[in-house]
User: Fold this.
Amino acid sequence: VIFPHGKHEKTNKCNDCHPKIFKDKRGENNISMKLNMDGRFCGSPNCHNSPKAFPLFQCASCHTGVSAAKK
Assistant:
């Protein structure tokens, strides 16, 4: 997923995420969906595991070419 800084800068400050959740340098964070779902990175309690953002299971919100999950 390509991180859209522009969208996040409208509602967050740099120090909301850096360096508490994400290291400042691109490629240094070793992000995975497992870690996100375990409450790290995008899935931290202050991000997409909170009421202020859409939930992580809305995959197509970040990943392109993803269809809705089948029930």
Summary: Residues 1 and 66 are 12 Å apart (CA to CA). The chain has a mean pLDDT of 88.
